[in-house]
Amino acid sequence: MVSSRLEQLYKHGAVIALVALVVFGALRYDNFLSLYNVMSVCRNNAMYALVALGMCFVIMTGGIDLSVGAVAACASVAAAKASPYGLVPGLAAGVGVGLAAGIVNSLLITRARLLPFIATLVTMLAADGCALLLADNQSIAVSYTSGFIDIGQGDVGPFPIPAVIALALYALGSLVLNRTSAGRSVLATGGGEEASRLMGLRPDTIKFAVYAASGALAGLAGVLLAAEFGAGQPTEGVGWELFAIASVVIGGTLLSGGAGSVFATLAGVLLMGTLFTVLNFENGLGVISLSAYWQSVIRGLMLLAVVVLQATVTQRRRQKHAT
Amino acid sequence: MGVLNAASPAADEGEGRARRTDPSAPDAGALLEIRGLQKRYAGAVALADARLRIGHGEVHALMGQNGAGKSTLIKALTGYIERDGGEVRFLGEPFEVHSPQEAQRRGISTIYQEINLVPLLSVAENICLGRAPRRRGLLDWRAMRHEAKALLGRFDIDIDVSRPLGEFSTAVQQMTAIARAIGFSSKLVIMDEPTSSLNDSEVERLFTVIRQLKADGVSVIFVSHKLDEVYAVSDRITIMRDGRWVHTADAHALGKSELISTMLGRDVNEAHGKTTAFTHGAGGHAGDTLLRVDSIGADGLARDVSFELRRGEILGMAGLLGSGRSETARLVFGADAPTRGSMRFAGEAYRPHAVADAVEAGMAFCTEDRKVEGIFPDMSVADNITICVLAKTGRGGVLDEQKLAERAQTLIAQLGIKCSSPAQKIRELSGGNQQKVLLARWIAMQPKLLILDEPTRGIDIGAKAEIQRLIRGLVDQGQSVLMISSELDELLEGADRIVVLRDGRSVANLEGEHISRASIVDAMAHGRTASVEGTSQ
Amino acid sequence: SLPKLAKKDKYRVGFAQSESNNPWRIAQTKSMRDEAARLGHQLVYTDAASSAAKQAADVNSMIAQRVDLIFLTPREDKPLVPAVLNAKKAGIPVILLDRDVDHALAKPGEDYVTFIGSDFVDEGRRVAQWLVANAGKRTTILEIEGTTGSTPANDRKKGFDEFIKQHPQFKIVASQSGDFSRDKGRQTAQTLLQAHPEADIIYTHTDEMTLGAIAALEASGRKPGKDVLFVSIDGEKQAVQAIVDGKLGCSCECSPMFGPKAFAALSAYAAGGTLPPFIKNEDRFYDASNAKEALAWAY
Amino acid sequence: MMKASPSPAPTRARAAGGLAWWSRHGALAAFAVLLILNIAITPHFLSVQTLNINLTQVCTIIIVAVGMNLVIATGGIDLSVGSLMAISGVIAPMIFMGAWAGAGHIGIAVALAVVAAVAVAGLLGVFNGWLVARFGIQPIVATLILFIAGRGIAQVLVDGNLQTFTVPEFAWIGQGALFGIPTQVFVMAAMVFAAVWTMRRTRFGRYVLAVGGNERAAVMAGLPVRRIKIAVYAVSGLCAGVAGLVVIAINSASDSNQIGLGNELDAIAAVAVGGSALTGGQARLLGTVLGALTIQLIRYTLLANGVPDAAALVVKAAVIALAVWLQQAQRRT
Ligand SMILES: Nc1ncnc2c1ncn2[C@@H]1O[C@H](COP(=O)(O)OP(=O)(O)OP(=O)(O)O)[C@@H](O)[C@H]1O
Ligand SMILES: Nc1ncnc2c1ncn2[C@@H]1O[C@H](COP(=O)(O)OP(=O)(O)OP(=O)(O)O)[C@@H](O)[C@H]1O
Ligand SMILES: [Mg+2]
Ligand SMILES: [Mg+2]
Predict the structure, then answer these.
(1) Complex ipTM, two decimals?
(2) What is the mean predicted confidence (pLDDT) over D143-163?
(3) Are B364 and B355 in contact (CB under 8 A)?
(4) Which residue from B244, B384, B428, B435 has its CB within 8 A of the most atoms of ligand 1, so it is best to mutate?
């Protein structure tokens, strides 16, 4: 059946596109597949991957989290301030700040009953302000001697620690989603909140958990940001939320909630990251020199292509099983 | 349907009154006792003084007109909404829960009135979520699928339980909800109109299951507007009116007409022994062909359907669950695109690309799922009624508000819609009244052809009669109706002609004296008619 | 010790720009491109769109591409340090333009070749000096800052505020962000002027915001240069014109024309010379005395 | 994403009388409190000039929010408005300063520029609507595309360069005044009035609410759902186009990097504070105007009283949350 093949293609669309892009890069550019480049792409994208992982769960409940970027920035400042006391305090400070912000989101959404869009928009503004206040408008240097930076700059064998952390958390996320009732409840909540309440599930608890988790992951991303770049940066993190949303969507997770895949989201993140690298290498060839302006046009076009494909497939599916 | 007819109805009225019991008297042996339950909404008092007593292993029917407060009682009991007052004791202890989950934990599982499951999740998950089997802390998918299959098997349903629930028909979804509820080992199972989207044989299977539950000592509260079903399965009946308890009696001791008049609060004349209020049209006054459908079909359920519909007649469409009736209606109405066949409407070739084309041509379609495809929940009753005629009133897109208001008023009065004012939000109306609003919407359009998919689903006896009279009235004015119904009586007594679908194909077109219970059932089940040669194509 | 740069005719050099969302950055990029083209070098250009993290990633991809040398305009002084050190490890020399990195973490002449640029703190100070000398009887200052948290905003504020503090007759009555943009600058000026009508001096961190602020004052029916004295930084052409028109008091140039100096440093380094750790871009200073001639060369 | 229904779950029947009043007039109350606060603490607050400043500063947000409100009423959202403002703001000067300027009368060139710029923004709105209606793409994603690419297009058109101009005929839109009231305020008022009238008195208005209330029901009722959706995004695009022109007219400069930056969030916040549910089915346009004024007044208050930017963000967040929460408390009772 044509449509089911198309469906398969789309299910693994992000993966296929990623492989295609990598092959293209490897053939066209020298050093594209060099260990250095691959590892640095992995290291650089680890923090985006973490944010996207949280976003993926949030979106599966039918919600959205606009605050992740600002929260990560705020967490990076907190982590930097705590870094002289060592790795664990730094980690705890960053993740703690993220978790706290996530819980604020959770409370605004499940108790004050604000819509996720507004609740997290508000948290985004507040976290942005708090980051600047906490950092006194400066970037905050981390301690290079306490072992804190290893979490961002260290390696396990050839593998960058941030990438290892991200991969481990993705594996955990996939396990939770597919093999625990909490994970299935996330999908149920997204598929129909009232229905899942009537089914005796606890959508509010689930939502509380996913926003808290998203906050904590953003906090961890902030820790990596601080450790990787040696500074807590209150002004970084702008637009991360949109990057994450785009990755999740490219990974095929329905924005309306109720369905999604964790590893496809990772593929989405890597696809976006690799695209940036390819554009950089293309500029390096010297044939054309794309300005940042063209890069945003290209990113927009790629998103367009992916979602139109996605939509065509879902529409076909819907037509097939019209209720 | 054997079940329905075998049910013992009519006992003597006097006897019924003698057996009348008042649940407000304390009873130590009761499983559930509700006294003085109250619930107020901003606009209305939904429950004023609801009472109910359920014994162990009892099947208890809860009856009342649309808006009587049955669903509200159930929601307040199970913690879906907070109650304003009253006392509930379950297993002799005070029962105060704040969420359906809590109620479930304490032994009450509920199927709420509108199907409430998650369409994107698999059938298996919908059945098992919340108590899913685990191995080493992780979900055991195989055991889960197995359990779901077993539960559905009790209803003779054999489907791929790993497919998303949304891919299946309303009936399968309803069965899934029931399977989920009985899957919890509860002491009390509450079913709010579980049969409204099931056909007779499905209902029969459900009743078998209910009887099994009863044998296991589980009590069941059962809400239905269909008297035969109520008599077939329930031990006792409680009747509510305007949010109050009015009567409880043993089923076999309560006469049908007493039941009805207690429910409606007035005497009804059931003299002619009919179950519906349809009167046959003058017969033969039907005119020329309005709609001609030739072998239409699509990828889905409807595969090869042909029929003819004349001006000024009611064409009934019968068929088993999943026989493709709703899909056929959607094809005719342009909601889905047919991949084969052709249609003619009002003398012209008719090929709708969208619903708007069908509406333009003069068709209206009242769907079977009012919540999802019918109402605009946050709009007023009046706006819900007039939304389809806006294009015909006013000029250049500007509304003629006075005319619209009058129109809405008239229809509200005509259909006896129970609302505090035309400006009340439709979401605040009871299910049956919402259904009436939808009918009003389509009637307001004065379509040439009105397609009704289960038009009286979830509607109480009084209102049902009104609606059936109304439908006949339309036809008498020369409009045509295509009526899909799972209630054979409704078809038998209401339709001028009947087309029977089986497996997506029209297998019989019955007319005149060929219409009989036996011939329809035969065609539905076997694709042929026993008594006469079907005119199937 | 620093990586060496072989002597060649044509180099493949990276230029990791931090953003290009304002006229100054665009002029800087153009200057670099023009000079590279003039000398026949290949410029590998990336744009970090205002993100230090992306800029670091850009540097890493240049390292992967094995460019000969990297020009970097670090968006922030600390977060780009790891990228600079990575380049050193990979044997690629780095020259910093326009902003320096934190010397506690990376040292010129050791971790990177040199830093070519202006001193933002000094720019603020020079404007303050001019103001003290030319303010006349005016004393009440509104300050319109750049984007909160950005290095130039912090430094220009620091230089100006510290100098003004030594002259107690002056008072900064309000200091708020105008986000480096003309529109926001205008809105901030409007509001501050309304809340502090007694203010007679406005100091803004960039010319773009100054032009907005001047428009705000004019809209309220007052005369720039007469009722309120404006002082600013950047020295872009429109601002110089405003000086000529008498609307703007002074503007300290912050030249974006890095191309010639940057590539000169590259040749000198390839030739084996040791470069000073800081090559200062001499910023001109425009006021009524020289604005007319300056129109010819202002960018 | 916007579908999480405001859950009816725990209906607390007796909302305290005081709270009920506050919530019914949430935005109004917040606005009144801010006014009184300002009169008390902000120097030189009570003056016509203050009014003018606030009106001009809030103009573009209100114009954008009007279109946004219609989109939100259908259950959608439009993230692209800021980028569309940039495109419109970049195209207009290209026309009246570019090739067509010399051709004849400057007035004609300006008129052409205004029409073309707004039309392009409207067409891009149609594109958004097409993605949403034809492919059923979630509005937030569909408009994210132009949010990202749109500003890029604006920048590419002028290679990121600033365009400055001295064209009084055009600047009049942003700098002129009629009877002492800024021209742009009239533009804004006209657009608000037109939208209010449309939503109250026309078929289109009802259809918009119906589509937002229950889309599938709207389809089955034979409403032209696709066309309605395309129309609201087009309107939103047109509004953004007008707003873009107002911004560049005020500044006599067009900066592709800055025009409309972040305005989508302000507009959405204004709609939410104004009491329209983001889930669709409602369009409280006057509430939206009040919401925008409230947000503007917060900004003015903080700025005029010297609250540092960082702290201002936190306060702004808190006030928005409070105002929306109050509105929602009402909907729950
Ligand atoms: N959310 C609500 N807001 C206001 N009134 C409500 C609300 N829900 C129900 N009501 C009112 O409460 C009354 C009882 O409704 P309920 O749904 O319990 O009736 P029912 O007996 O189940 O009717 P049906 O047979 O039609 O399902 C009705 O008059 C209805 O209008
Ligand atoms: N007993 C059953 N076992 C498995 N699948 C069933 C069963 N009954 C129905 N189905 C499924 O239900 C769907 C029927 O859809 P449809 O709504 O078109 O039928 P219908 O004739 O309109 O019936 P109704 O509207 O009364 O539910 C099909 O997908 C069919 O596979
Ligand atoms: Mg009910
Ligand atoms: Mg059906």
Answers:
(1) 0.85
(2) 93
(3) no
(4) B428
